[in-house]
Amino acid sequence: MSTVGSDASLATSGPSLGSGEMFDRIARRYDLLNRVLSMGIDHGWRRRTADSLGIESSERPEVLDLATGTGDLALAIARRHPRARVRGTDPSRNMLAIGIEKVRRARLDDRVSLEAGDAQEIALADESVDAVTIAFGIRNVPDRRRALAEMARVTRPGGRVAILELGEPRRGILGPFARFHIRHVVPQLGALLSGAKEYRYLQRSIAAFPEPEAFAEMMSAVGLETEVVPLTFGVCNLYVGRKPRRAS
Ligand SMILES: C[S@@+](CC[C@H](N)C(=O)[O-])C[C@H]1O[C@@H](n2cnc3c(N)ncnc32)[C@H](O)[C@@H]1O
What we know:
Blueprint: H1 21-37, H2 42-51, E1 62-66, H3 72-80, E2 85-90, H4 93-105, E3 112-116, E4 129-135, H5 144-154, E5 155-166, H6 175-194, H7 198-208, H8 212-221, E6 225-231, E7 236-242
Parallel strand pairs: 1-2, 1-4, 2-3, 4-5
Antiparallel strand pairs: 5-7, 6-7
Helix pairs in contact: 1-4, 1-6, 2-3, 6-7
């Protein structure tokens, strides 16, 4: 594994790094699109994720941020936890290049490193990190069960896996408005701003994501005691999975 800013850190390898290709095409506009499409709320959701890790009392916590993209969650975690070391990985070279520059400008390159990697095959030893995070990334991973099993594998007993993902609120008065926003506004505005058809994919992938209860079940199946925290009326959900400590 290489460190921030080196050319080697952008080398892609491994079986399914091709899934980052779509994000390579939209990388330059990604941050702007995020702000516009979520109306700026996405920063607050990432801060909630950083708050959920339970690492405050650790001396030197190690955090792995999968599908780190342009690094916003990795940066939010480093700012919230000044003693934490954050390693972000993603298969998209172009997303990582923007993230690496943001880390450098934030002067956090002593604690945040970004490098190529696939959530389905994490290049870390068993039980080697205090927390694993992934924001708006799990729905892009072809084999979600395998990725969840990998997250549980690398997390230390007592550590946490925090997953942030958009949803389609099906109930409540906000449901129809949120669905309209995701199904029509997001792809139209996304295509207009980025010139890419890829934002149609965003809408389809959100609609195809399992219901919160079903996804929490998948996390429980890999041994994580999971709680679902709906954010902004369920437009987004934060899934916090705790890896049980071993009985002594
Ligand atoms: C919507 S972006 C999220 C980026 C960032 N986490 C954020 O909060 O803005 C989704 C990311 O998932 C990445 N991705 C796609 N396939 C992946 C895989 N198999 N493993 C890990 N990340 C993947 C993409 O390259 C992209 O950067």
